[in-house]
Amino acid sequence: MKQLSSSKNPELKRLRLLFQKARERKKQGVFVVEGEREIQKVIKGYYDLECLFIEAGQEGSFSDLLNTQKRTQIFSVEKTIFSQISIRSGSEKMIAIAKSKTHDLKELQLPENALVLVIEAPEKPGNIGALYRTAAAANMDAVIIANPKTDFYNPNSIRSSLGALFLLPTAIASSKEVIAYLKEQQFSINTAAIEANAIAYDAFDFTPPCAIVVGTESTGLDHQWIEASNQNILIPMSENIDSLNLSVSAGILMYEAQRKNKRLDMKTIL
Q: What is the CA radius of gyration of the chain?
């Protein structure tokens, strides 16, 4: 275990750069994740850890995790230096650099009669994280991101997802490619959109294979999704409100899809 006691150390300079720059994360094919809970989910999601940074004196607290990472480089970071590099002010005591995945649409492996969430043009890391946390809780089979506007491995996405980002099979592609893929795989494409032919979500059967497609809170879905849709779905709301939070809307639809297909023991969420 290498000891690091200077903020000018090359490993720590690299870590700070990866925290801050999406371009650098993409260039190096890695991302940064902070917190033992999130790192455990990285491991559970079959990502490879490149290295771990631990606040000096806390090594014993993570002995079980470290024993599973014999080939991972471990750095012990002096306490005051660790608090400087941590985006959580050192509260989590552990940071990892892990290798990214390609998320190629062609490599997405789905079970028969899958239920998937499609997120079109997400741009707010907090929304992406919240959507993944909800999708994982609702036991969706996969998430597909179409036309992303932000880095998938943004530290704020990871943090707001509580690590759920790593637990679901994920593919990233253009909307055109995703629509073609869903049609080829004979998915029913069902869009959250207020259109003339839209029906209430609880009147729809969500028969799999089924894709639930959501857009941004500000502009909704691109026209190509509306044209490709098999059914537009809406959530009834009070006349005093014109929109719902994106993750709340998606959560309602995902849980209804699971309920209709009797795929989720609803007692587990009470």
A: 20
What residue type is assigned to position 15 of the chain? L
pLDDT, tens digit, for every residue of 212-253? 999 987 778 999 999 999 999 999 988 887 778 899 999 999
3-state secondary structure of 32: strand
Return the half-sphere exposure (C-beta side, CA atoms, 13 A cut-off) of residue 173: 19
- What pLDDT is stored for residue 89 in this prediction? 78
Residues spanned by the domain of 65: 2-99
Q: What is the dihedral of CA 75, 78, 83, 84, to 10 degrees?
A: -90
73-77 and 2-4 beta bridge pairing: parallel
* Pairing relationship of beta strands 199-200 and 231-234 according to DSSP bridges: parallel
Same domain, 188 and 230: yes
* Under 8 Å between Cβ of 174 and 147: yes
The model's pLDDT over 111-143, given as tens digits with 9 standing for 90+, comes to: 999 999 999 999 899 999 999 999 999 999 999
**What is the model's pTM?**
0.92
Q: Cis peptide leading into 209, omega within 30 of 0?
A: yes
**Does residue 112 sit in the same domain as residue 239?**
yes
The closest of 249, 251, 182 to 210, measured between CA atoms, is 182
